[in-house]
Specification:
Layout (H helix, E strand, L loop, with lengths): L10 E4 L12 E9 L5 E9 L13 H8 L25 H9 L10
Helix pairs in contact: 1-2
The chain binds calcium ion (2 copies).
Length: about 110
């Protein structure tokens, strides 16, 4: 008889929040603690991309952002064209889903978008 599998994860608690006043563009690291079913705690750091989907960090999501991601299409981690700033789903490659993610947030006609 197979044994029951206990849930591996009970809780992830972040020890600092991302502030709305944070204006940096790019990645920030947020410290956290992961606590398992048995109460064991592991410190970890979550990397959060503040720019996505505004990948060129100009405060708008428009065709320039779509082009910036599409220009790196098929680049993978380790490739000189790869940059995690444009890997919106974080799978270590720039693919169709990344292009679709930024295109879905495009705000045509807003804020002087080209
Ligand atoms: Ca932009
Ligand atoms: Ca990706």
């Amino acid at each position: 008889m197979a044994g029951a599998v206990a849930p591996a994860l009970v809780r992830v608690a972040f020890s600092s929040a991302i502030s709305a006043a944070l204006t940096a563009c790019g990645f920030v690291s947020v410290p956290a603690n992961l606590t398992d079913f048995w109460g064991h705690t592991l410190a970890l750091t979550a990397r959060v991309n503040l720019a996505a989907p505004d990948v060129n960090c100009d405060g708008r999501v428009n065709i320039l952002d779509v082009q910036a991601v599409a220009r790196r299409f098929a680049a993978q981690a380790g490739n000189p064209l790869y940059d995690p700033q444009f890997d919106l789903d974080g799978d270590d490659r720039i693919g169709a889903l990344d292009v679709m993610l930024v295109a879905s947030r495009w705000q045509p006609g807003g804020g002087g978008n080209p």
